[in-house]
Automatic annotation (TrEMBL):
UniProt keyword annotations, A-Z: Aminotransferase, Pyridoxal phosphate, Transferase
InterPro entries the record matches: Alliinase_C (IPR006948), Alliinase_N_sf (IPR037029), Ethylene_sulfur-biosynth (IPR050478), PyrdxlP-dep_Trfase (IPR015424), PyrdxlP-dep_Trfase_major (IPR015421), PyrdxlP-dep_Trfase_small (IPR015422)
Source organism: Juglans regia (English walnut)
Name of the protein in question: L-tryptophan--pyruvate aminotransferase 1-like
Stretches assigned to the Alliinase C-terminal domain: 22-377
Homology family: Belongs to the alliinase family.
Length: 388
């Protein structure tokens, strides 16, 4: 059993009658692929390995394992989703730590007023939580970027594709001169979720293994940072917060990323050894099932996304978000509550700065849980139409 974000307890892997916990984006759907890889992904760590705090004293990011740095550059080269030339790589304990490091790096030494931080709604619910947590005098959460009008320095977090609603995004705050700083959180900018429309070329970009390979438990994220001074300040924060990042995790992440790249570079690769082919296929099947079951449901609806040309796949593809951003119809005001009625825990729209008639449900769960969710959507609808 584990605790959910809202403090309730639930079964980790649900049996057929229990409450379905789909409020977090735990990426367990990719487990079967990696289980089949078996020894290909095996790493051996001996007693005397990785004992030092340091990885590469010549690098700005002295705690980055060179093998991981190389693997990250190779991965972006293979996928074509981000420019790594003239960028510093800063590794973090998940991109969550890097986000905090960036808040620090972009706002120190600090002025009279805290720097405003905004993101266009619906925004990832962790942004306000992280920013408000320590009541910092350096920065302050100011909510939806669309309605932000204040003068002075600000940070806009651009999350593309967006968590929760799945679409590609651009910065929205206008007419702020050179006072604005942008953080591009590209956690989901991978071919299983979206078309790769160009190699992202922003000054500050965040990525994470959690949503790319599915290895959330390794807690490895990375930032691609153009400005050396910003990178240095991030490194200063990570030094204060955790004196670097686990070498064992970095070593494993480098191995996993290498296996992904090998699979992509092999022209004869299939869904069994090409991770993105596999994961895209799985996401396609899930979205088909979800759209099909909701076709017959007048209480819940979903966005439609345009097809876009994907440079990685070489053809026009569907958008397959990691989450279902569900909207209640027929005057139902609270989608989270509606979902609770079918024994499913989602995360309500309010936490994302949106109307409570929306809720987010993770589609990255294990196959059994996903199928149970589809069943519950179907049965819920049946119950209603039978007058229950
Ligand atoms: N950004 C976004 C948009 C996310 O959805 C997540 C994970 N849910 C993260 C960042 C953080 O990922 P992690 O700390 O696991 O790298």
């Amino acid at each position: 059993r584990l605790f959910l974000d809202n403090g309730t307890r639930t079964n980790h892997s649900s049996n057929s009658n229990s409450v379905l916990a789909l409020s977090t984006g735990d990426p367990t759907m990719f487990e079967p692929f990696w289980r089949k890889m078996e020894d290909k992904c095996k790493v051996v760590i001996r007693g005397g390995d990785f004992m030092s705090y340091f990885s590469d004293v010549k690098n700005v990011c002295w705690f980055l394992e060179p093998k991981l740095g190389d693997a990250i550059r190779r991965l972006h080269g293979v996928v074509g989703n981000a420019v790594t030339e003239e960028r510093h790589i800063v590794v973090g304990t998940g991109s969550s730590q890097l986000f905090q490091a960036l808040l620090y790096a972009l706002t120190t030494p600090g002025g009279a007023e805290p720097v405003s931080v905004v993101s266009s709604a619906p925004y990832y619910s962790q942004y306000p939580e992280v920013i408000d947590c320590l009541r910092s005098r350096l920065y302050k959460w100011e909510g939806d970027a669309h309605s932000f009008k204040k003068e002075g320095p600000y940070i806009e977090v651009v999350n593309s594709p967006n968590n929760p609603e799945g679409g590609l995004r651009e910065a929205v705050v206008k007419n702020q001169g050179d006072q604005g700083m942008l953080i591009h959180d590209l956690a989901y900018y991978w071919p299983q979720y979206t078309a790769i429309t160009s190699a992202a070329d922003y000054d500050i970009m965040l990525f994470t293994c959690s949503k790319c390979t599915g290895h959330a438990g390794s807690r490895i994220g990375w930032a691609l940072v153009k400005d050396k001074d910003i990178a240095k300040k991030m490194i200063q924060y990570i030094t204060i917060s955790s004196i670097g990042v686990s070498k064992e995790s970095q070593f494993r992440a480098a191995k996993i990323i290498g296996v992904i790249c090998d699979g992509c570079e092999n022209v004869q690769s299939t869904e069994t050894d090409n991770f993105f082919k596999y994961s895209r296929h799985l996401m396609t099947k899930r979205w088909q099932k979800l759209r099909e079951v909701l076709q017959h449901n007048r209480y819940l609806s979903l966005f439609k996304y345009p097809r876009q040309h994907c440079l990685f796949i070489g053809e026009s593809v569907e958008t397959l978000p990691a989450y279902a951003w569900l909207k209640c119809e027929e005057g139902i005001k609270d989608c989270e509550e509606f979902l609770r009625g079918i024994e499913t825990v989602g995360r309500g729209g309010k936490q994302f700065g949106a109307d409570p008639k929306f809720a987010r449900v993770s589609l990255l769960c294990r196959e059994d849980d996903f199928n149970r969710f589809i069943e519950r959507l179907y049965m819920g609808h049946q119950g209603e139409s039978n007058g229950h």
